[in-house]
Amino acid sequence: MAMQDYPWSTLVAGFITVLVGVTSSAVIIFQAAATAGATPAEISSWMLVPGLGMGVTCIGLSLRYKTPVLTARSTLGAASSYGAVPIARRQK
């Protein structure tokens, strides 16, 4: 199926859904990394790895089940990692 076979509304809806999935917990992740004293490279990896994981799982599950599947990182999980930062800093 070629790109021109999809209506624009479908493509826009998919883009917005992915954008919200990626950015929903971004601020929490940035704050957790900054609180942990992470370097800019480490903060980049904190954002890159979940994004790649989401991409791989979306593509893999969509191909497997032949229907659009969207995965997203958990805002609650990001908040939990932010809460764990002071504990990790005390253990150093």
Defining key terms:
mainly alpha; elongated
Report on the architecture of this protein.
The protein has 92 residues and is mostly helical. Helix content is 75%, strand content 0%. It is built from four helices and no strands. Helix 2 packs antiparallel against helix 3 and helix 2 packs parallel to helix 4. The radius of gyration is 17 Å and the shape is elongated. This is Putative benzoate:H+ symporter BenE.
Detail the topology: elements first, then pairings:
Layout: H1 8-23, H2 26-35, H3 40-65, H4 75-91
Mean pLDDT: 78
Strand runs, count: 0
What's the number of helices?
Answer: 4
Major sheet, described briefly? none
CA-CA gap between termini = 54 Å
Oligomer: single chain
Sheet/helix structural class: mainly alpha
Order of helices and strands: HHHH
Categorize the overall geometry: elongated
Low confidence ranges: none
The proportion of residues forming helix, as a percent range, comes to over 70%
Radius of gyration: 17 Å
Strand content: under 5%
